[in-house]
Amino acid sequence: xATKYAAQARYEAAHTTKITLKLHNVNxxxxxxxxxxxxxxxxxxxxxxxxxxxxxxxxxxxA
Length: 63
Hints:
By secondary structure, the protein is an all-alpha fold. The chain contains three helices and no strands. Helices cover 62% and strands 0% of the residues.
């Protein structure tokens, strides 16, 4: 991969956060399978997190 331009590096430092996961092939096989469903892993992870957040908000609103 080519070296980033200084402006791109500044933008990423100010506007992005990198989060990594270390998953166990056996114990977390269900998660790995969900992330390998053909959609991009990042896109699928965001979708699943947002679904969980929405469900949590709905539970709080019902209480």
